[in-house]
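Q: What would this chain look like folded?
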Amino acid sequence: MASIWFVKEGEIQKGYPIAQKPVGWCVKNLGLPSDNWIAGLGQTSLTIGQKTILGVYGDYRFVVVEIDDDDVRAGAQSWKTGFYLLEINPRDARRVIDTIP
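A: My prediction, written as structure tokens:
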């Protein structure tokens, strides 16, 4: 299952994913694009938007999907492992995650 994260502007914050869904579900319902790959799984520091001290205090602004080796083995062979930036905002993504099984 791909992990879906809501992140704030700045460095990627690690925590519990907001949801875990199959890659196909993320493509169909969240618009996960294969060309929005932003970093591999081994990346130790990842920044989205501007890295500022104020980014920590802001709202979640981005949705990131993490695809790992298990996802690729489970049928997502055409995908690279790593992090993908979605073009949907967290509020809309939350609505989709909560309403579509």
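The radius of gyration is 13 Å.
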